[in-house]
User: What shape does this take?
Amino acid sequence: MLILSRKVDERIMIGDEIEISVIDIRGDQVKIGISAPRSIKVYRKEVYQAIQQENIEAVKAKPSALPEWESFVDRATHRKE
Amino acid sequence: MRVDTKAYGSVEVDERQTIEFPYGILGFEKLKSYVLLDAPQQPFYWLQALNLVEVAFVLINPVIFRPDYTLEIPEEELEEIGIDSAEKILNFAIVTIPQNPMEMTANLQGPIIINKETRVGRQSISTNPEWGVRHPILKELAAIRQQPC
Assistant: This one.
């Protein structure tokens, strides 16, 4: 991994079109600005990973575990506070 | 066409039920072709991968248990699958079924979007942090049922 030190307002170019800027640093939090073409998707990694992980969990669903909606709804309706 | 499915074994499926996912589904990027099948347990659906029988997702229309759900995703993600109007959108949430099916959850943060006309789909990521990956369907359904009409 390439590691660069940057100060507030300093920037990094990735290729010709992606620009990363350090906007602000406070304690252990860094505010980062990203300019990239619309076709480049930018996500917080934990969100991306959470969805990926959930998909992997979802695929384990057993067809026999799928409940009848009616009984499912009954449980919801008759549930007391 | 004949398709091997996780839920029903080998079944005959109409070509119009096939859906292409050019970007795959997160964690399953290599699988691009699926079929959308009605589950006998409505309102669920199965999204079955064409080339790998083990890969099948249970889907639900999120509005069924969250009437307040709104699809909030970057516009270019819709454009990329040719959606330029709301009428073309089919929107599902992937359902996770744990040991106790009553605790099943739906992923509202990573919605499945399908262009009805071209049958091209993708998984998107919601820009609204209110929507998480594990919404308890039964609990949220109970919450709406307890509200006065």
About this structure: DSSP finds two helices and three strands in chain A. Chain A has a mean pLDDT of 89. The longest strand of chain A covers residues 18-26.
